Amino acid sequence: MFGKKTSGRQAMSAIHLLHRAGQCADELFMLNVSDQQLTPRQYTVLESVAFCDREPSQTALVEMTGIDRSTLADIVRRLVDRGLLTRMKTRSDARMYAVRLTLAGEAALAAVSKTVALVEEQLFATVPEGERPIIREVLERIVAAHGPISSARVSARTVSLSHHLVEPNDADT
To answer: What is the pTM of this model?
Structure first.
């Protein structure tokens, strides 16, 4: 919804501006990372897996990234098919899967991470350097306060369940 006219321009709602900023970020990502054939969400999943101390379950990744369950499952499947992740059943719950970066996944993440830093530089080029950490902090506070979208919410019990991996050669797949 558009707000009042200010200085000859329409004042857009914060909701719309956040959406548009996300579109700008996605487009810059795709323009600069297209040779790696990763989408912004695939990069987020790879980065989230790398960030974890142990292999996260797909449920934990839903909670970490805010990506809904079905979309995340599809992203993981595609990354497994490309050899960037491995997926294993957990010992504690045969319905739950945990994922691990492969060497190819680590290499892809390292290659793309350098480009992502340049993309973020392009994205914030019009923002004075001193204000950039403030914008990031505000975005982090918004996400922390409102959490993931409802389709990505999982119970704290589900995320905190300890899991023991069934190695790929142990799993009956």
So the answer is: 0.76
